Amino acid sequence: MFTGKTDKKLLFGLAISALCLFFLFRKIDFHKMADAFAGLDYRYLVPALLLTFVSYYLRAVRWKFLLLPIKKTSMGNLFPSTLIGYMANNLLPARLGELVRAYSLGNKEGIDTSAVFASLVLDRLCDGFTVLLVLLITFFTIRLPAGMEGIQHGLVTGGYITFALYVGVLTFLFLLRRHTEFTLGIVARLVRPIAPHLAEKIEAMLRSFISGIRFPGDVGGVIGILVSSLLIWFTAIWPVDLMLRAFGVVLPATAAMFIMVFLVFAVMVPASPGFIGTHHLACVTALSAFQIGSERALSIAIVIHAMGFFPVTLAGLGCLWRDKLSIKNISENTSQEQLREQ
């Protein structure tokens, strides 16, 4: 099902996860961890769980808007396919969940998988821009405890850099869409003197990317995408605050945003399926900025990861069973789709 190249990536990811877990647990007092879990207020976990599923449902809503130029799709197919995709991301290597998600919906709606996958590329771009916005708000508004002035100054500097990056990416995409040949010409002139062969590949990739992107043309569709994107991340960040409160940690709302930014970057690092280790280390690192002890921070990280891993995995497997599919069957089909695209 997977190539040798994928297997090497998987082994590298497993090694990274193991290293993160080693650093996390090497100096942990397990009695203090047990005390932290003993004080857990489970009442906060129920609304956190509900909000997590609301966030996934909103992802399906946004996906519906993104697919409007192709077909008017059913929420009865979009939501289960979204859950199946995130379940696959948790269980399969190489982030195959995106292809699984595209295959699942394409199979139900009778849409070509490559067209559905193109909508997911745009979906990820929407996430990227929203996360950058969260990043900006966090860097400029968060106030860390006394003694963390150096980190605070670094965050403000990071905010300016992020803002410049945000504007730069938006400008580039606007020019690529409106003035494709002119923009590709500039990219080629910049890259060709350094790497001629790479310039050709980049040009082909950008041309394929921009031709495959079909953005809703009506104002209602654009507003729907913008509003759903903001609500997706609002309902993803709020559970983090609730889980902090479950451990008796009361911090400003920007603290949950700060932690979420670290978690977003953590999933970009090669790791085992489910982002075990990298996710936990990112959460503990973010909490250390608020002078939360290692044992309590790791306990919080474990619960945040578990709440994001087990419910959607079980729900996705349930949807898979309802559709009379298996992970092996769907991953083999998506691997074949991937090979055809290459």
TrEMBL record:
It is found in: Cell membrane. Pfam families: LPG_synthase_TM. It is a multi-pass membrane protein. The chain crosses the membrane at residues 42-58, 116-142, 154-176, 219-240, 246-267, 298-321. It comes from the Bacteria. The keyword Cell membrane applies. Coiled coil: none annotated. Keywords: Cell membrane, Membrane, Transmembrane, Transmembrane helix. The keyword Transmembrane applies. This is Flippase-like domain-containing protein.
